[in-house]
Specification:
The complex is a heterodimer of chains A (265) and B (257).
Chain A: E1 4-13, E2 21-31, E3 36-40, H1 47-54, E4 62-67, E5 70-71, H2 72-77, E6 81-84, H3 96-107, H4 111-124, H5 140-152, E7 158-162, H6 170-187, E8 190-195, H7 198-204, E9 207-212, E10 217-223, H8 232-236, H9 238-251
Helix pairs in contact in A: 3-4, 3-5, 4-5, 7-9
Chain B: H1 5-32, H2 43-52, H3 54-88, H4 90-105, H5 112-118, H6 125-148, H7 152-160, H8 165-200, H9 209-218, H10 222-250
Helix pairs in contact in B: 2-10, 3-4, 3-6, 3-8, 3-10, 4-6, 5-6, 6-8, 8-10, 9-10
Classes of the chains: A alpha/beta (265), B mainly alpha (257).
Chain lengths: 265, 257
């Protein structure tokens, strides 16, 4: 069974009205369990829209999205995926543990089991001493780790991430990338990851999906065979730079977002 | 720094010193320029009147304070209830909120003159009605904002958790609105006292601080009028301090609002 299956999906915003915007056209994408797939492309290529279709935060205009072999809507209702965004989006009236517990609360877990899982997740993202801290007491990188812990709290098989490290500085960002790879390995989670950054996409992914705007579509799918274990040496390897060049070339010649108003999302 | 005795002294001392200096200057100016008591009585005379009429001032404060408090509580409850209705229906929000803001900008407490006609001459209801009306608008505007201005990402998260509308209300909208409610109370508490006083200027029973000020001036007891003014200031201050204290206790540190 595939983790994600996108079949002939198009998404038109304001369909049937004069201001209709075709955000995505004829998307086909299959993601197998355990894969780490990045969606990359200039603003307006529909990569965030694509992610929201998989998450069933948006409905496709035509075509079909399957997650875990079920319609995306059912997968959402079953909480088959966790989600993280560029902003951590923590609830500032809840402490860190309570934030992580929120999806479990909505699933009807009892207090003890929730707390236990929250502490376990904090262990996983290496913030065990911050259970009772309030979100504002944490740095941006720490908040993002809590957001990832929250996304994975219910142990979903799939993690959807929309530029989660976009607001972090370079050092924190690289550290978070390693942490994410470790967490996904330990929990064998499938990831769909939206990013602007070519090195980030290459470093993290087993496959990079290159998208192009106007209208949003998939122009290239590049396999990244850098092995399962990636570390500092991967970042300095020739194969890594070769892949970066390959993705860059696939992106080259694409019109950029400056030529047209933003239609992303 | 704040919280340590020295820090506290640094915060408290300057305004206290300024207040004492101002009173001293006032006293000296009245003596030096030989100002007539009907023009401006000296602080010492006002203080004398304040102590002499202590029981009367306390009684009058109780009447005005009760009117303000009842209006504040009723107005807050109605304001919160309306905010829930308005937050639920977007169209209503766009319809009512500008109106509420506009009404808040005009001195609607003159309406008390109309209310006075509706009830018996000794009734406190018109004044309480007036206070609750003023408070309602303040609470309504702020709480509606708190219920509706939720981060879009938090709504997307809730949707991704397959949360029901009731769950979104209970776990996101209401907690988000709590600091807004306390902000509203901080504004509404002094406003309720002011409205209670001013309402007394438009007739009705002569038992509150506002009407006492008017009647003291009418019989040329200027220092007594000022003593009632002092009582009014203290009552307003008490309401404000309680509202600020509630805000401190009710909002977790670092939360928005």
């Amino acid at each position: 069974m595939n983790a994600v299956e996108v079949r002939g999906v198009s998404k038109i915003f304001n369909a049937g009205r004069p201001n209709a915007v075709p955000a995505l056209v004829d998307i086909d994408l299959t993601i197998e369990p355990g894969e780490f797939v990045s969606l990359i492309g200039p603003s307006g290529c529909g990569k965030s829209t694509q992610l929201r279709l998989i998450a069933n935060l948006l409905e496709p205009t035509t075509g079909e999205v399957l997650v875990n072999g079920k319609p995306a809507r059912q997968a959402r209702l079953d909480q088959d995926y966790g989600m993280a965004f560029q902003q951590a989006g923590l609830f500032d009236w809840r402490n860190v543990a309570k934030n992580i517990e929120l999806p479990l609360e909505l699933k009807g877990w009892d207090r003890v089991r929730r707390r236990e899982r929250a502490l376990e997740m904090l262990e996983l993202v290496k913030l065990p001493e911050f259970a009772d801290a309030l979100p504002w007491q944490l740095s941006g990188g720490m908040q993002q780790r809590v957001a990832i812990a929250r996304a994975l709290a219910a142990h979903p098989p799939l993690l959807l991430m929309d530029e989660p490290f976009g607001a972090l500085d370079e050092m924190t960002r690289e550290h978070m990338q390693d942490e994410l790879l470790r967490i996904c390995r330990e929990t064998s989670t499938t990831v769909v990851f939206v990013t602007h950054s070519v090195p980030e996409a290459v470093y993290l992914s087993t496959r990079v999906v290159v998208m192009s705007p106007r209208p949003g579509r998939v122009t290239d799918v590049i396999d990244v065979d850098l092995g399962a274990e990636r570390d500092v040496e991967t970042r300095e390897a020739d194969a890594f730079f070769k892949k970066i060049t390959e993705v860059r070339e696939a992106l080259r010649g694409m019109p950029t977002a400056d030529d047209r108003p933003r239609t992303d999302r | 720094m704040r919280g340590s005795p020295r820090g506290l002294a640094r915060v408290v001392l300057p305004p206290v010193a300024f207040g004492a200096g101002f009173l001293a200057l006032w006293e000296v100016a009245v003596k030096a320029f030989d100002l007539k008591p009907y023009f401006l009585p000296p602080p010492s005379a006002i203080w004398g009147q304040f102590r002499e009429n202590g029981t009367l001032i306390w009684e009058a404060s109780r009447v005005s304070g009760t009117n303000a408090l009842v209006g504040l509580i009723v107005g807050t409850m109605i304001g919160v209830a309306l905010a829930f209705v308005i937050a639920r229906f977007r169209v209503l929000n766009e319809l009512v909120t500008p109106l509420a803001i506009a009404l808040n900008a005009v001195p609607i407490f003159v309406l008390v003159a109309v209310f006075n006609n509706m009830f018996s001459i000794t009734s406190e209801v018109p004044r309480r009605l007036m206070v609750s009306l003023v408070v309602q608008f303040i609470v309504l505007v702020n709480v509606t904002k708190g219920l509706t201005q939720v981060l879009p990402i938090q709504l997307e998260l809730m949707r991704s958790y397959a949360a029901s509308q009731v769950a979104v209300l209970a776990k996101v909208r209401i907690p988000n609105a709590v600091p807004y409610l306390f902000t509203a109370l901080r504004i509404a508490a002094p406003a309720s006292v002011i409205t209670a006083f001013v309402s007394e200027y438009f007739g009705g029973a002569q038992n509150g601080l506002g009407s006492r000020i008017v009647s003291s001036i009418a019989i040329s007891k200027n220092a007594a009028a000022w003593a009632y003014v002092l009582g009014a200031c203290l009552l307003g201050l008490a309401f404000y301090v309680i509202a600020v204290a509630l805000e401190r206790f009710g909002t977790p540190r670092g939360a928005r609002g």
